[in-house]
Amino acid sequence: MSTATPTAAKPAAAPTPTVAILSMGRMGTATALMLQSHSIPVLTTVHNRSATTSTNAASASVRIAPSDIDLINTAPLLISLVPPSAALSVARRIAWAYAYYSPPTAPTAAPIYLDLSTTTPATARAAARVFAETATLGSPGPRYVDGAVLGGPAEPVGGGRRGWRKPRVVVCGAAAGEVDVRVSGVLGLRVVGGEVGMASALGSAFWGFTRGVAAVGVEAMVVAASAGMGEELRREVAAVRGGQQVLRLVEEGLAAGGGEVEGVAAEGAREVGWRGGVMEGGREVWRVVDEAGGEGGVEEVVGRVGGLLRGKRKREEEAAEAARETPEKKIRPDDSDADDADTGGNAEDDDSTNILDHAILSRPP
Asked: Which of 30, 277, 284, 328 is positioned for an S-S bond with 154, CB 3.0–4.6 A?
């Protein structure tokens, strides 16, 4: 008769959480594909979204929720990857949906809203307040986590067989360390602090630094190229320590073109008191690059930007010359406003008096 002690059954592994992504742009689509490659289910909604969003969701084979309500009642983790200008409005939309349409949950079981939309610290704090305020109306709602993506969208290496090349992702806030460990591992989350706004500050500064350096490089290249010295400048920059990295930043910047991150960087600088600094100037450089068209190699794009600027300068000089040649209107002494000035400018009172005087003087005897 066997006397072996029966082994205790192993506890069942916790189910892999579903992750909701808003919205399916370039960054959102790449993130969805990377999560799904690690067997993490992804959900999104295309309700009232663009055709491009629907196409991206279909191409990534992401499950579609009919509405925000279905989304929030299915996924314990929502990741916001919307353009910076839409970050706060989307946060409001989701917070109100939780307040009125989600079932009650214990605060410790409340879902997490991970905001990776690359906003300014002020915007992140405003979004956190929205969730805190709406939580008093019903369900505790999601816990807000501030975050920033430092780099471009994730890319598969070798078709995904050798892993993924992914950006760094920094997060902060009271619930920053409570994101599911599997999701956190795939995304590569790194907690940088406990106060909301810290990750956004790092994000806006990172993009201001990298895009600002690239903008200075573009501006310098246009100056050199205007004198036929573009190649010489690149050779000299490459010869100094760190020069190759700077040239690579310029190439990557021109390939990416302008975007909202420059505005976020400039706004972040204004929040701490900078006015008219390099980040604001960099924003203008990328606007001009977009106007000229950022497609093509470095020399090609720099040439188009230079041509655009020369054309603008020529038109400005021609307009100034035309203004100088236009004869000024000469004012005769009797055309002056002296009468109005003598009466304090009350021309209407003077006119009424003159009319009354005329009526008295012209009355027949």
From this structure: 30
Which residues are registered as beta bridge partners of 112? Answer: 77, 143
Beta strands in 179-335 (DSSP E): 189-193
Q: Contact 156/133 with Cβ under 8 angstroms?
A: no
Asked whether the predicted pLDDT for residue 141 surpasses 90, the reply is no
Q: Could you report the per-residue pLDDT of 307-344, keeping only the tens digit for each?
A: 999 999 999 988 988 888 776 555 555 544 444 444 34
Task: Specify the 3-state DSSP secondary structure of 201.
Answer: helix
Q: Per-residue pLDDT for 55 more than 80?
A: yes
Gap between the Cα atoms of 23 and 32, Å rounded: 10
Question: How is residue 195 written in tokens?
Answer: 């106060």
The Cα–Cα gap between 262 and 316 comes to 27
pTM of this structure? 0.79
The DSSP bridge pattern shows strands 77-80 and 112-115 to be parallel
Which three-class secondary structure state does DSSP give residue 360?
helix
| Distance, CA of 312 to CA of 218 (rounded, Å) | 18
Question: Where residue 14 falls among pLDDT bands split at 50, 70, 90?
Answer: low
Q: How far is CA 305 from CA 14, 253, 284, 314, in A?
A: 55, 14, 12, 14
Q: Determine the Cα–Cα distance for residues 178 and 184; give it in Å rounded to an integer.
A: 9
> Are the CB atoms for 227 and 287 separated by under 8 Å?
no
